[in-house]
């Protein structure tokens, strides 16, 4: 079984820009794949296609995940809601009973290291903590597929390294399928054992790197 399959995907925007061409990839359940490439090579477009936000112009995409969640660079949190209520929102939209919603939000906030900060509002939190809330919100629905659009790109370097370690830990526990895009080679190599390198305009996958699992990790 495959959670995500792209077969010779091409994307041409109405402006005439061809953002991607001949992109094929597969992601198995529980596998985290990173895509690295310079800006403008079509990484965000690739994620938007995988999420269904955009339609392919040619080729095909097959998603066999019951649920997908999307994590962006700027943690788009609701400023008037506490961290816990931001995470609970997902359950509210799905009609999950209040107690269950609260309990699940508490569990994932613990998992991302935010115990004690549940009642804080986004503006009271640091950039790294806001990103943690964003991750918690993405994970609370137990997605089978998670799409990450350069989520740590705006963080300072130390926080970013912490978040990379954190995401690895969460990933080992939760085992969702993930597609993580970044322009940082070190981040891609650190996070995943399978790195796809994109480049060009239009962007295409020019190399696939298997990172040995023995790769030393802190
Ligand atoms: P990356 O995420 O790697 O920086 P993008 O996927 O954002 O690259 O963009 C790839 C190319 O597609 C760029 O040339 C960009 O200008 C173009 N592009 C992205 N979105 C649109 C859009 N909605 N309409 C027209 N062109 C777009
Ligand atoms: P960018 O490519 O966006 O400029 P990098 O990912 O190279 O940023 O990160 C900047 C610094 O952090 C580099 O010195 C890099 O070696 C280091 N770094 C990044 N990720 C890790 C990691 N997971 N473990 C150790 N060092 C890292």
Write structural notes for this entry.
- The chain is an alpha/beta fold and about 220 residues long.
- It contains six helices and nine strands.
- It has helices spanning about 45-50, 85-95, 100-110, 125-140, 155-175, 185-190; strands spanning about 5-10, 20-25, 30-35, 60-65, 70, 145-150, 175-180, 195-200, 205-210.
- Strands 5-6-7-3-8-9 form a six-stranded mixed sheet, with helices on both faces.
- A hairpin with a 4-residue loop joins strand 8 (about 195-200) and strand 9 (about 205-210).
- Helix 2 packs across helix 3 and helix 3 crosses helix 4 (about 125-140).
- The chain is globular, with a radius of gyration of 17 Å.
- One adenosine-5'-diphosphate (ADP) binds near residues 157, 161, 164, 183 and 186.
Q: Provide the succession of SSEs.
A: EEEHEEHHHEHEHEE
What gyration radius follows from the Cα positions, in whole Å?
17 Å
Assembly context of the chains: single chain
Outline = globular
* Helix-and-strand structural type: alpha/beta
The average pLDDT score comes to: 93
Could you say which small molecules are bound to this protein?
A: adenosine-5'-diphosphate
* Strand residues, percent: 25-35%
Biggest sheet, strands in spatial order? 5-6-7-3-8-9
Report the count of strand segments: 9
Poorly predicted sequence stretches spanning 5 or more consecutive residues: none
Biggest sheet architecture? 6 strands, mixed
Q: Termini, distance in Å?
A: 32 Å
């Amino acid at each position: 079984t495959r959670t995500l399959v792209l077969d010779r995907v091409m994307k041409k925007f109405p402006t005439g820009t061809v953002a991607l061409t001949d992109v094929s990839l597969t992601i198995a359940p529980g596998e985290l794949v990173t895509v690295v490439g310079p800006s403008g090579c079509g990484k965000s477009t690739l994620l938007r296609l995988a999420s269904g936000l955009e339609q392919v112009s040619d080729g095909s995409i097959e998603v066999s995940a019951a649920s997908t969640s999307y994590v962006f660079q700027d943690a788009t949190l609701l400023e008037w809601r506490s961290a816990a209520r931001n995470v609970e929102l997902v359950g509210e939209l799905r009609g999950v009973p209040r107690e269950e919603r609260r309990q699940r939000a508490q569990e994932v906030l613990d998992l991302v290291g935010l115990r004690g900060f549940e009642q804080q509002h986004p503006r009271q939190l640091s950039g790294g903590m806001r990103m943690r809330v964003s991750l918690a919100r993405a994970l609370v629905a137990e997605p089978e597929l998670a799409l990450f659009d350069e989520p740590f790109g705006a963080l300072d370097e130390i926080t970013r390294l912490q978040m990379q370690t954190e995401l690895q830990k969460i990933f080992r526990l939760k085992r969702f399928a993930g597609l993580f895009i970044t322009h940082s080679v070190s981040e891609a190599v650190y996070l995943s054992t399978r790195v796809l390198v994109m480049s060009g305009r239009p962007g295409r996958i020019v190399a696939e790197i298997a990172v040995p699992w023995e790769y030393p990790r802190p």
